[in-house]
Target: Nitroreductase
Amino acid sequence: MKKELEQIRLGNIADTNHEIFALLKQRYSPRTFREEKIKKGQLNQLFEAARWSASSNNLQPWRFIYAEKGAEAFDKIVDCLSDFNKKWAPEAPLLMLAIYKETTDEGKENFHALHDLGLCLGSMSVQAQYLDIGLHHMAGVDWKKAEKEFNVPDGYHVSSAIAVGYYGGQLDKLPKKLQESEQADRQRIPQEDFAFKEVWES
Model:
């Protein structure tokens, strides 16, 4: 099984058309994790990477709620996930909710808050990869329920959930369809479909 998972990791290294930073090539979103708690110092490193991300006007609108497996708060996060994500995410050693502040300190709409949260999560993902930690970002979360369960203040919005754990785990713990998904070839649209020089190309 360990050899099989190593082969999956090798198979998930991006087949890029142009050479990029190795950690970016190696990053993917696993659904299996080793049964090992995230080391406190390494968790601090993840949040430090987020802390030093770029943000519009240095507003740093990101916030996180996290819980380790076995904690009541962990089960509350699981309960807020979509049925699909409940099939695998409870096996992660740590779950997070990613949140952003919708307004500036003056009460005006921060149009770029979600953009900044994305930058912050990108930085966290690269730092995680450096530490052999996989992050699986999940859009499938009932944000209204999560905001109520965790008493998120007005003006803050739960955007996504994240499963966090060291790469590895047991593939056979996943339902068969998810096992197949873990081993499927990765696909990306070509640059020509999203990067346009001088004029939009439809």
Observations:
- Residues 2-193 form a domain with the NADH Oxidase fold (CATH 3.40.109.10).
- The chain is about 35% helix and 15% strand.
- The mean pLDDT is 94.
- Residues 48 and 124 are 8 Å apart (CA to CA).
